[in-house]
Each structure stands twice: as structure tokens, then as C-alpha cells.
User: Fold this.
Amino acid sequence: MLPNKFFKWHNQILEENAVKLSNIQPKDTVLELGHGPGFGLQAAAQLLTAPEGKLLGVDYSQYMHEMASKRMKEQISRGKAVLYCSDLVAMPIEENTVDKVFHCNCYYFWPDLKAGARAIHRVMKPGGIMVTTLRLDSVIKAANMKVLTGHKWRPEVYMEALQSSGFTDVRMEKKREKLITFQAIFATAVK
Assistant:
């Protein structure tokens, strides 16, 4: 497998598992943060079968926003999906409107974890579920190579930011699929 295909496959598995672990229901409003090329958006859209079901996506990268917009153009044209090219903290999503939030491989790139966690909490309905997936072994390697600096890459630092922002039941679980071991962080929004 070529390196690009290898990384694409790994990320796609993480995104699809974040969707699966979010327990998306047909009528939910679902938000993917750092949606990248849109694999997670595609997987989530298939579960939002009720007319009320809505999909939102936020990515800071104009390039990724354009890639995902092309991949999701049918859902966007039907009003089923809305994608924003925006910073997480400035995302133009109303308070208390989102049932499920998922993201993969992105919290360690946020400038301020606590501001990011507060922004997620702001848009979520009480009782809403947030799930993030990551491969901790890969994250540790990136930190050792100085690709990720400081301490915000550490899951416990992100989990503390979630707790201090009003999330409860914040926990990390080890998961495995298709020969890949990964971690999933879960949190429940309370108001």
C-alpha cells in the first residue's frame, strides 16, 4: 500500500468509527469538526434518514472545505448538509442545536483546547454526545519527532479541557478494527 493510501485508509477507519461510536439517530443534528476530505461526513449522512436529520461540518482549511463540499454536493444541494470553512471557536452554529459531535486527529492542532472545548459545548444540546478518535501511538510518535509540541496532544489534557467546559462522563476507551488499534474519547454535554 502506498503511503498516501495507507494514511487515507487509517484516517477513514478512524472517521467511520467515530461516526459509529456516536450512535447517530435518523433525526439527529450532527457536527463533524475538522472534516477533512469528507469521509466521516459521508458515513454520517447515511444515518440521517429522517427529514429532520441534519449534517454540519467545520474545517479551517479552505482546501479541505472544497474537497468535502464536492464529495457532499448532493446532500448540500438538498439542504441536508451545511459545511463551514471556519475556525472552531468562531463556527457560525447556534447554541444548543447539535445532538452529536465527532472529530478525528484534530484537537492537538487547536490553538486553545479550553476555548475549543467551550465552543463544542456551546453548540451542543444537553445530553449530546461528543466522540473523538485517535491513534495514540501515532500521536506519541509525532510528539517525539517534535511535529506536535507542548502538552496539548496528550489525551488527558484534552479530557480535562472537556470537563472544565461542562462535559461529564469524559472517558477514553481502547478500540480495535481491521487490525488497527485506536482510542476513542467520549464526553456528554450538560448545561
Summary: Residues 3-189 form a domain with the Rossmann fold fold (CATH 3.40.50.150). Confidence is low (pLDDT under 50) at residues 1-7. The beta strands are 29-33, 54-59, 81-85, 98-104, 124-134, 167-177, 180-189.
